[in-house]
Amino acid sequence: MTDELRRKIGRMVPPELIEGFESSLRWGADQAWRDAFEPIGLRMPPIEPAEVEAEVHRLVSQRRHLGCRALLDAARRTGVPLEYRHIGGGHKKAFAQCGEVILMAEPLRFVEDTTRPTAYKSELADCLYSLRQLTLPFREWPPQRIDGRSTVFAILQFTLPVDGPAQSSCTVRSIQLVVPTQDLKDVQVRSDVCGNNFRLKFIEQFDVGSAPREQEDKVRVLLRPRRQKRTSEDG
User: Which of 24, 146, 147, 226 is a Cys-bridge partner for 70, taking CB atoms 3.0 to 4.6 Å apart?
Assistant: First the structure.
């Protein structure tokens, strides 16, 4: 089952999406730290302990948004259908769909942390075993954009500790692609996808690099205009 899931993910998910997510996430984390501790303009950098603590707390609360923004940016650049929808409790989450794979991003403090069970994750994880349409509390979930029937739910878990004011604490330590079990108590797939690891572990390992990607997007294939024969008047 694990190899089957890896093969499907490698066939469906463009490696450029994973690489673009990492690039955008690292840039966003660096910019967030600089905005907090090396501000440009009239705002003074934090000096007092209370100010430093407030900025660290702000960075911690920004981690989820950094992941969402990086996924949305990577999906837009690669032409992958995306959504930024309410998930209940006043929160929003970014989703991208690559054929039969639905992706979301999730921050962790430590690499060994596991995903926290929630209602929307449970329903997405259950989609692999069901042919039903999603009934998540997303209100009007556009069926033409994200369709959860018979899909694999995968999470891009990134480690961003932010445990102090040092710039190193706001550096992305790892990015793992995780496919949770149906009950969210364990994982079926967990792989580091930093750098070219996604290509190595999900594509080249199964020789699926040249397989067609069953992915809905807005790309239109146009025929090249037929070239007209030159006449003597054309020179």
Answer: 24
Check: pTM over 0.70? Answer yes or no.
Answer: yes
Count, residues in the chain = 235
Q: What is the pLDDT of residues 173-216, one digit of tens each?
A: 999 999 988 888 888 999 999 999 999 999 988 876 544 444 44
Q: Nearest CA to 188 among 6, 17, 8?
A: 6
pLDDT in tens, 117-166: 777 777 777 765 544 444 444 444 444 455 656 688 999 999 999 989 99
Contacts by residues 210-216 (CB-CB < 8 Å, ≥ 24 positions apart): 211/11, 213/11, 213/12, 213/14, 213/98, 213/99, 214/11, 214/12, 214/99, 214/100, 215/12, 215/14, 215/80, 215/98, 215/99, 216/81, 216/97, 216/99
SS3 call for 88: strand
* Residue 219 DSSP symbol: -
Positive or negative torsion for Cα 11, 17, 21, 23: positive
